[in-house]
Design a protein that fits this description.
2 domains; Aldehyde Dehydrogenase, Chain A, domain 2; alpha/beta; Aldehyde Dehydrogenase, Chain A, domain 1; globular; seven-stranded parallel beta sheet; homodimer; about 425 residues
């Protein structure tokens, strides 16, 4: 069998991408009815082969790292690209962990017997073929392949060009590992080129690919959404808000503000905006700003917050927040601060600025909290807890393939179950209508 | 307040459509947290006003019918367009029935308390703003507005040009009915033109419209899917299959074949293909063909079925089925017949030809039935019952806004619940990570 990762995509890219999609689709029919044991055996086979080929993977990864250095990739990007022995071990661990998770396929979601005797069951089934578009981290190849496989989906992977050697070695490994298993080799396919044209054709294969999950920066995700004829599940960005109510426990509010901003500023569930009720602003802001300053966090405050802070801490250099700032995912040690007059104004602000990812209120006032929990239009809304908990592991999903700020199909952290759809099975005894 | 249905969309169509979308979005925030009583009161207000304005509706409808006659619309199309007193009464009845359905919003879908004490609840919430694109039947205006309203969604309606006067009168009526209620008037907006350009702009409003549901012929749905930046839930067509297994009760199989094809051939859950196991073909086909002939149903058979039928019924005129026929939704009294060698061949044929709408097996062999139920990739798969039951009412959903052959979000009949998404509400007690 010719391994798809080896053929050169030079001419007829459209046909070749179409052929890959057809092969994945064919594999998906077989995969859909395999047992958990059959799928888990394939996962173990992949885990074993990663262990066995750790040295080859490191070698291939070195090629990417060398090319990356020559091409002037930033140290941060080179770090994401790197497959250390620990990261290879973590991939193995990840695959084995996915094998231990409950099989999401074949669950009876609900059932009823109609007055005419029809027995109607809504049963979870794989989506079919899932396309994963990602950037530099090569371990995404294995993470996504494992999650798709466990949920009975075929996957078509398209990684970033900077990780091409690493991804090719990983995809070849998966194909080799599947050879002796009941899972068809075409269940995991890598697009053997990082040509944009191939990506464009991939996004048009709506006959054979049923869902696209892009993982990466906002530019990549916008490109994919703009060009895809296949439904896309995504989040563009995480503009998360923390609202400190007039009846907040201010020590707790400060603690959450600091950890949710400064704990790991480069992630999507970190806060970007701190929204503060006027009544407690003068008490809350100065001490909070001290803690932020200590963590080297830049502050951009609206005019009212600015004047409070300048009075209280004349020595600090503070910026004035623009309207644009409140819409920005800084992914950095920068925090925008706004003062509001009321809970309703806070709700308006969060719904206006937020990207529908994660938003929180700190308050001891239960009705205010319940109003906030009901009125904020977001994937996850918190009361007296940090937005940083929006994560598949924290939610008990075992593992996650991404976080959705969309509304259809999946919202918030997406685990194995979100990689499934359902169908109705209807058992009759001769009903003709 | 200026009624949006009256302003002329001449210049700046893009801005005007954008403004409508913003108004609907604003209304959706209010609508999302209204109580069931508030929404039901608004529905009753709509029902009352339809009763009161029945004469005006008939008058406006007459304008559409006259224009339709002049423009040479077919009698079938004119019939779909017509608002008879019975149909007006049925609209009223429909709205009141939606009011009696359980509120799909605010249901706790699942919940857990994590080891760190976080109380995580997955709660059903409205999607937000839903765009409905439909064709000639004006009652869709009211049906869809009522279902969206009950599920807490704002709706933007864009009907067909042949029903423009009727739809405008209905939309004006809804706006008037909402004035005295807690539901904002902008919760139901009609695009005040049937210009294609307005539709194109509508489909780009992904900031403020969250889901598009097209209802109509395949051409309309393909146009919408092709041009939409907003997720679309749809079914292109219903190519439904009936497979008669080697161990089928042949009387039952014949009965299902006839009713599922001839009962109402113009609907999407009628069968188009009859797939027959070779072992019983000689016994099953002749008697079935007699019944089909009696119902004036044209038959297109593959070569093997053709030779069986020609031997058994030399007097009948029969056509040979092309590969194309098996992919075709005839919406008419035409049936394609194919003979297969095995259950697995039948599964392949159904998965290849079907449009993922509804497919059935007739058999007394339980393992064969279970294999078919598991392996067919479709929205609804039946054992010993007709495909015609794929319908929101038959499924006990109360009412339906459409049927989806998509995989993401909703598959099969879509009721109120499918007009909802969910969000996570997380209640903490100071968790900072």
């Amino acid at each position: 069998m010719i391994k798809p990762i080896f053929f050169k995509m030079t001419e007829n890219i459209e046909n070749q991408v179409g052929e890959l999609a057809q092969r994945a689709r064919k594999a998906s029919f077989i995969l859909a009815t395999l047992s958990s044991d059959q799928k888990n055996a394939a996962l173990e086979s992949i885990a074993l082969l990663i262990e066995k080929r750790a040295d080859i993977l490191s070698e291939k990864n070195r090629l990417d790292l060398e090319a990356g250095s020559q091409n002037g990739l930033s140290p941060a990007l080179l770090d994401r690209l790197r497959l250390t022995p620990e990261r290879i071990a973590a991939m193995v661990e990840g695959v084995r962990q996915v094998a231990t998770l409950p099989d999401p396929v074949g669950q009876i979601i609900e059932s009823s017997v109609r007055p005419n005797g029809l027995d109607i069951r809504k049963v979870s089934v794989p989506i079919g073929v899932i396309g994963i578009i990602y950037e530099s981290r090569p371990n995404v190849t294995i993470d996504c392949a494992a999650l798709c496989l466990k949920s009975g989906n075929a996957s078509i992977l398209r990684g970033g060009k900077e990780a091409f050697h690493s991804n090719s070695a990983l995809a070849e490994l998966v194909q080799d590992a599947l050879r002796e298993t009941d899972v068809p080799q075409d269940a995991v396919l890598l697009i053997p080129t990082t040509d944009r044209e191939a990506l464009n054709h991939l996004l048009k294969q709506d006959e054979n690919i049923h869902c696209i999950i892009p993982r990466g920066g906002e530019a990549l995700i916008r490109f994919v959404t703009e060009h895809s004829r296949i439904p896309v599940i995504k989040h563009y960005k995480g503009v998360c808000n923390l609202y400190v109510d007039s009846k907040a426990d201010l020590d707790l509010a400060r603690k959450i503000a600091i950890t949710a901003k400064c704990g790991r500023p480069g992630v999507c569930n970190a806060i970007e905006n701190l929204i503060v009720h006027r009544e407690i602003a003068s008490e809350f802001l100065p001490k909070t700003i001290d803690a932020l300053a200590e963590a080297n966090c830049e502050v951009r405050a609206d005019s009212e917050a600015l004047s409070i802070l300048k009075d209280a801490r004349p020595s600090l250099t503070l910026g004035e927040a623009t309207e644009e700032d409140f819409h920005t995912e800084f992914l950095d040690l920068i925090l925008s601060i706004k003062i509001v007059d009321s809970l309703e104004d806070a709700i308006d602000a969060v719904n206006r600025y937020g990207s529908g990812h994660s938003d929180a209120i700190v308050t001891t006032d239960e009705p205010a909290a319940e109003r906030f929990l009901a009125a904020i239009d977001t994937s996850t809304v918190y009361w007296n807890a940090s937005t940083r908990f929006t994560d598949g592991f924290e939610f008990g999903l075992g593992s996650e393939i991404g976080i959705s700020t969309d509304r259809l199909h999946a919202r918030g952290p997406m685990g194995l179950r979100e990689l499934c759809t359902y169908k109705y099975q209807v058992r009759g005894n001769g009903q003709t209508k």
